[in-house]
Amino acid sequence: MAKTKISLKLLKNKAQKEMLQAKDLKDLDIVFKKYLGDEGEVTLVLRSLKKLPKTKKAKIGKEANELKNFLKIKFAEAAAALKEKAQKEAELKEWFDITVPGEKVAFGHLHPLTLVQRKCEEIFQFMGFSIIEGPEMEEEWYNFDALNIPKNHPARDLWDTFYLKNGLLLRTHTSPVQIRYMEKNQPPLRIIAPGRVFRHEATDSSHEVNFYQVEGLMIGRDISVANFKAIIQEFFRRFFSKDVEIRLRPSYFPFVEPGFEIDIKWGDQWMEIMGAGMVHPNVLKNAGLNPSDWQGFAFGMGLDRLAMIKYKVDDVRLFYSGDLRFLNQF
Ligand code: DAH
């Protein structure tokens, strides 16, 4: 018995010493198996108990079991310590050299059409206009009828329209936003409505199936063409950062009377840049306003056209090409 007692104590010391020497979890596992594995030294002591006489069996069995439990706890502690050590070492390895030059992050930037739209918004906001949005998928009523373009009226041919299966259409211009806004808001009012429009047209260097417009609307008791001219002149002056000569040419749009086209002088050429006019009484009526109380002007200009002039781009399709060689120039 004395001998077993000594050997249990010996086992305990040996096992503890070897545990402390383990450099990593693999080492520790070997030590664990050596003492507590199937053929481990402590396991063997426990297994040999049945050969002992009863009195010894109880006493040694108790001590051997205590040793087993004790070692298990110690192994778990040692494993935890080793894990922590490994983690700390890994963290240290992540140390990096702060003197190495950083990698350049590639920044994106705004699309030229977005830049132009924002510039327009900024200028008109400065002049007291609110920025209003309308849906791209529109009802026939707002896109045509309410704008004084009845069914079967030849003027509908001016806009080649994408009709949708759900009974709606893709708006062919931003003018429907005029009606939507006047329905809900009482004059006096000043708004612009920038946005995307769609035309079922063959594409070429100056035509796309979708493009951007900015609609303008100003309604009051006595808003006149003179007000329009002053505002639009100021807009161009700010947009191109210089005085620009403009002219009004009589033209026809069903939703205005009189209607005109505005040209700007660019170099020695006149360039057509927008449609405009005094809002037609029928349009005011359709939006729920009394034409004998209210009057004003409306205009619609192509953002793409503005961007082409500002940035000297000769093909509108480039804006929609997604070609980085083009886009990176802005
Ligand atoms: N909606 C017209 C178009 O897309 C442009 C236009 C012309 C808008 C005259 C207006 C306007 O508000 O008064 O061709």
Give helix and strand order, one letter per element, not per position: HHHHHEEHEHEEHEEEHEHH
Structural class: alpha+beta
Name of the CATH superfamily of the largest domain: Bira Bifunctional Protein, Domain 2
Under CATH, the topology of the largest domain is which? BirA Bifunctional Protein, domain 2
Largest sheet data = 7 strands, mixed
The number of helical segments is 11
Tell me, briefly, the overall form: elongated
Beta content comes to 15-25%
Mean pLDDT metric: 92
* Ends distance: 93 Å
Residue share in helices? 40-55%
The strands making up the biggest β-sheet line up spatially as 1-4-5-9-8-7-6
Instruction: Return the CATH architecture of the largest domain.
Output: 2-Layer Sandwich
Which consecutive residue ranges, at least 5 long each, have pLDDT under 50? none
Q: Which radius of gyration do the C-alpha atoms yield?
A: 42 Å
